[in-house]
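Lecture 7, part B: from sequences to assemblies.

Below are the input chains for today's worked example.
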Amino acid sequence: MAPATAADAPVAVELEGVGRAYGERVALRDVTLTLPRGATVAVFGANGAGKTTLLRILATLLRPHAGRAAVLGSALPDEGWKVRGRVGLLGHEPMLYRDLTVHENLRFHARLHDVATARIGELVDAVGLGGRADEPVHTLSRGMTQRAAICRATLHAPELLLLDEPLANLDPGGALAVAPLIGRQAGPARVLISHDVEQGLGEADWVLGLRGGRQAFFAPAAEVEVKDVRGLYA
Amino acid sequence: MRRVVGALVRKDLRLELRTRESVPAMLMFSVSTFVLFHFGLDRDRLAGDLAAGVLWVTLLFAAVLGMNRLFVAEHEQGGFDGFLLAPVDRTALFVAKAAVLLAFLAVVELAAVPAFAVLLLGPSDGGALPGLVAVLALADLGIAVVGTLVGALAVQTRARDLLVPLIALPLLLPVVIAAAHATAPLFAEAGAGALPGRWLLVLALYDAVFGLLAFGVFDFLLED
Amino acid sequence: MVFGRGLRPLSIASAALLTSAFALVFFYAPNDADQGFVQKIFYLHVPLAIVALCGFVAGGVYGLRYLRSGDRAHDLRSYVSIHLSLVLAVGALLTGSIWAKASWGHWWVWQEPTLVSFLIVFLLYACYQPLRFSIEDPERQARYAAVFAVVAGAFVPLNFMAVRMAESLTHPRVLSTTGGAMPGSMRLTFLVALAGMACLFVTLCKYELASKHASMQLRRLKRRLAGDEGLVPLERSAAPQRL
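Predicted structure of the full complex, as structure tokens:
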């Protein structure tokens, strides 16, 4: 699904000693990992461990204060502009205008990213929003809004998906429906934050554990057990 | 750039049409203020610099209402993030928002200025109209530029609704000075006088300086 | 990085210049023909005004340098010059008001364009610290304050021009002296007073910079010794708290 790019970097994400502080409070310290293209890394950690900060740095929304970071072959923050448009972020906020309809939101998003609007129809149908796509977003339930947000995050066919609890408000039907877009088989490399330990481990190739902003471990998923992850929340 | 600005402007106009948050409020505020001035000054008719002053002060405060709301939707509904993730020139947001504020001001003035003429001005032959339109256009441009900058500055702070008028009003004072001095002869008792060109030049200079400055500095407000 | 370089010679120079200015004002400068003794407040009012304006513009320049380099030392310098200029601006307004009362009978005169422009500039810069205080994230606070400083700095000359144009058409300057051409004795006194005020401003800036920098270093040392947990968290502040 991901289009081939001219500079086809073999590695989707490469971090070395990355850190970020808010004033005196250190949100993230010394994170080092490498994520190959097409692979998935599951990020686990208690609330406040720095997961969202990490995601926002990878999305180029935050500048790293320490270390070296490279996303899709481009160094951050200097070459961050090359990365925009190739990354899809699904955060806590759906990033949809509540008073516009799903279609209007997606068309706006498509115009911003200079992407054809033709795909919008099929995307909307694929996630099961077909009938409600012409109603304002504030009339939709949390689950439907989440599906619409997933459409927004994948409309521009990103090469790297940054997912913050993507299945949070979805019913099992919804989870199935969005799997082709953001699941393992979708294609792009993924950074997945999840609180569902078994499910996250099952989907991942690599696992990153964060505790108090520091990296507890980064290992292939096969070597990580559920109890290691649960230890992060202790 | 044009595509992005167009998309942003269309989105904001559509939002305004649907929610009707800014323009009606600005308009109702203007008309109420005219009524307030009638009672506060205890006058039936205004002329000359008094009329110009009342008009411009009212329009300025109405503009502040618009400034306050300009970036609220972006801030509260994740619009900033959505825009920052797109592969576009970030100054497009400034251009788009300034254009939207300008459009709001134009629509409000289309109704408020006739209301002002009816409520507070004496009978006239409409000779003042072309001059008035020129002054309105130049002044609105300055208000839009500075208002967008201040709105963006204040939206991410805590005391947003207080800071916008506190910062914007002194910054826009030269606009008020120039616009009032330019409009005063147009509202003269004896019939519209000539438009003093000097003040139009001041307005144009202000627009140019602040336009360029805002263009250069706006990106820094969006970074993190 | 050392901020307090040259502090002692500067302090001595300020004291010397200000004392000589004082002496000159009272014993050397002539009394004004129309306004009498009271006109001497001009030697306090105008230097205060000029130095305050230069301080505001300097704040804008440092703000611009911060935006371009990201070096927080520039933000600290911008903050200090603007905040001290604000103090001087209050002084200029007060002395201007006293002068107006003594020579014109009113505590405020709209006809004096410099005084009016000053009021507007003061109202604008009075928002600087509240703006800083209302932003919690220190990096963003510095950046937004720098944008404000740059825009406000560019505004100062425009404002003066607009107000001067508005007032001078109808009223002559009220608080000018001898219609423009100053006799030599007045000029000398004025220049000494101006130099003294400028020296004082720079000295005060350096003192404040050195003091803030020392607090920051102290905190950094404490953190290294006691660790993050041993420190009392910083309160919200309008001033930059770490470099």
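Note for the exam: Chain A has eight helices and ten strands. Keep this in mind when comparing with the next example.
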